[in-house]
Each structure stands twice: as structure tokens, then as C-alpha cells.
Amino acid sequence: MRQSTALIEIATERQGLKEITASVLRWVEGQGVGEGLLTLFCRHTSCSLLVQENAAPDARSDLERYFATIAPEDPTAYDHDDEGPDDMPAHLRAALTAVQISVPLIGGRLALGTWQGLYLFEHRRRPHRRTIALHLLGE
Amino acid sequence: MRQSTALIEIATERQGLKEITASVLRWVEGQGVGEGLLTLFCRHTSCSLLVQENAAPDARSDLERYFATIAPEDPTAYDHDDEGPDDMPAHLRAALTAVQISVPLIGGRLALGTWQGLYLFEHRRRPHRRTIALHLLGE
Amino acid sequence: MRQSTALIEIATERQGLKEITASVLRWVEGQGVGEGLLTLFCRHTSCSLLVQENAAPDARSDLERYFATIAPEDPTAYDHDDEGPDDMPAHLRAALTAVQISVPLIGGRLALGTWQGLYLFEHRRRPHRRTIALHLLGE
Q1: Which of A35, A56, B95, C129 is the most exposed place for a label (fewest CB within 10 A)?
Q2: Beta strand B100-106 pairing with A128-138
């Protein structure tokens, strides 16, 4: 049994879901592990991780619109606005989704379902460079 | 240290919470591991995982009703309805809960609290066959 | 590769976020692991775990107020009130956040971002003693 770790950088262009499955797979495939467990950890509090539908684009735009509605930008609702009106809603949307996701590796493949992709969910309006910590255990 | 992986199938009969603790324990106990880490990963985007109260049934029905309210069926609210009006709310409820849960194994037992059970949360109205990927690490 | 497990106790004084980063680090540092994966698992269904902003206090009070709003105390909304009006909202807030978080350990340090802290989110009004199960894998 062995392990490896890495930090990967993801550039986000806009608020919303950005698929990172290919970037993650590229690193995993370089590690030569057949069975194991991959962990992704998001090192930020204003973006998050999500496993979601990778086929229909309107499922993703609906999801983005939904999170904009349940944790809205609203200057009257929050005290914390150090970085603008999208600051506090970003923390809330991150709290409602996931900071970390682990996926088993079985038979040399991530055990993602057919319609599942790994997404970075950018909650800030402006482009950011984001860092995801990866840990892979296996043999 | 060693690991094992499996795919288990769960049949859901209806929308709502289905306890899977016994099915998961059955597999774990067959692996002969005393200390370790169990990971469950849900291979779908319209059902999810939840650790919840395993005693009072009304806590579960309240929880089901709550998720039906915060991510409601509403044909006017979503563009994505390829599989019917319960399609998009299913993705939203999955995003708000968990796709993956890891539980330490201590002294030969899963470290679940006294009142905690592992649940598959079916978000579609019709019965489905669901697959959960399991990974167990330990010794 | 080796592993260790522990149960740590956290006393909560009030409803809301309590930072537990220092308590967790104290245990991790005693294990002498440089690279690995730490898992925290919350053994309760009326408190939860959260990685959040550790700098601005108003981000935390905004977050507490937000969860009080989207999963409110409301005697007319829930059947389950065995332990009072804050019982069912506690389960809902726990379902919306996380029961478990895993963080990679890289170069002898948890891979938390600069502004990230580990929090126990107490959802009950009265003080409680809470137990978090820890699992550390590494070398």
C-alpha cells in the first residue's frame, strides 16, 4: 500500500460550475494505482466541490440559479461584506455543498457513475486561481 | 494494512430515506478488519447519502418533507426536466446532502453514534436500483 | 503506512460554530505522521462539522443566522419535537452541512487553506458534550 499527494491549480473564469474531472484523472493516472481511494480537498471557503450531472448543461445552469436563490446576494442580510456583496453568499453556498470528496478507485478506474462529473463550484463573481489538495492511497 | 472494495446494490421503493446500515455492516464484517476507515460513495446524481437519526420515524418524515420544501417540484423553476418534474429537484437535493461518507472503524465497530444510521436518500419518485461503491482500509 | 484512531470530546457552550482546529492539530501532531489523510467523523445528528472562514467573526455570525433562517424553529412545521423546538431544526441543519471531513496531510501539515478553520457546528441551544471520531492514515 502506498500514497501520494499533490496540489493542483484550477483557474475559474466565472461564477458557477467548472468540470475538473479530466484534470484530476490526469494526475490519478500518473500514479499507477489500480485499487484505492482518492480524496479531493478544496482549500478555500468561497468555492466548493460537487459531484453532479455531466451530460445535460441545463441541469448545471438550473443548479447555479438555485444556489443564487437560496443563498442570495443581499446587502441587507449580512454583516460580512469585506470583499463585496458576493462574499458572504459564497461562504453560505460553500457550507451547503462540499469541501471534500473521496472516490474509490476500482479496477483502475474512479468509481464515478456514468453521469457523474467532478466539479469545482466557484461562488465568487470574478475569476480566481483555486488550489485543490489531492491524496491518493492504494496499490 | 490492506484494503478491499465492492459495489453493493440497493433497491429503493419510493422517494425518501432508506436505511442501509445493515447492508453495509454485512459487507464490512466479512472483511475481518478491526481498525480502519470505511468509505461509501453514491454513484448517482438523483439520490444521495445521509447519516441521520435512526430511532424516531417522525424525524425522518420531517426531514423528507423539509427537502421537498426547500428544493420543490416546480415546472416553472427549472429548464431541465428530461426525466420529469422530479428530475431537477433530485439533483438539487443531492447537492445539498452528501455523495460520500467515510466512517472510522474502531475496536472492530463502525464509529457511528448510538442514534446514527446510514441512509440512502432516494430523490426520485419511482423505484430505482442504486449502486454504492465501498472502500475499506484497515488491519 | 500506519494508522491511528481516537475519540476526542468537545464541550459546546452554545448554539453556533466552535473552532476545533487546535484540538484536532494537537492529536495529529502527536502521531508523528508527515504525509497522510486525516478523517473527522461527528457521532451526533444534532451537531455537524464545517470548514469555514477563521478570520472575520462576522462571517461566522452571518452563517449562524443564515442556518437559523433556512431551517427555522417552527413548532407548526415539524412532527418531531421529542427534545424541544430546537430538536428537528438541529437534524435539518446537520443534514445540510457535513457529518465527516477528510483533510490531506502534506509535508507535515494539514492541507487547510490560509483562511480555513475546522468547526463543530452545535445546533442545539443548550451546552453539550460532543464526541468526534478521528482516523489518521499515513507515514
Answers
A1: C129
A2: unpaired
Band (B82; pLDDT cuts 50, 70, 90):
confident
Which residues in chain B touch residue A53, judged by CB atoms under 8 angstroms apart?
Answer: 45, 91
Q: Buried (b) or exposed (e) across A5-22, using 16+ Cβ within 10 A?
A: bbeeebebeebbbbebee
The three-state secondary structure class of C59 is: helix
Angle at A126 between CA A120 and CA A132, to 5 degrees: 30
Read off the C-alpha cell for C55: 478570520
**CA–CA gap between residue A136 and residue A32 (Å, rounded):** 10
Task: Give me the residue from A80, A98, A99 closest to C58, CB to CB.
Answer: A80
Chain A positions in Cβ-Cβ contact with residue B88 (cut-off 8 Å): 59, 62
CB C119 within 8 A of CB A45: no
Query: Is A123 in contact with A93 (CB distance < 8 Å)?
Result: yes
Q: What are the distances in angstroms from CA A9 to CA A42, A54, A98, A134?
A: 11, 21, 18, 11
Tell me the backbone φ, ψ of residue C104, rounded to 5 degrees: -65, 150
Task: List domains and CATH numbers for chain A.
Answer: 2-138 (2.60.120.460)
| A100/C97 CB distance under 8 A | no
Closest CA relative to residue A7, chosen from A57, A54, A36, A42: A42
With CA atoms as reference, the chain A residue closest to C50 would be A95
Chain B residues lying within 8 Å of A104, measured CB to CB? 5, 39, 41, 133-135
Which ipTM score applies to this complex? 0.97
Residue C91 and residue B115: Cβ atoms within 8 Å? no
Nearest by CB: B137 against A37, A61, A96: A37
- Between CA C33 and CA C36 the distance in angstroms is 7
Q: Global pTM?
A: 0.98
pLDDT in tens, A87-124: 999 999 999 999 999 999 999 999 999 999 999 999 99
Let me know: does C132 contact C41? Beta carbons within 8 Å: yes
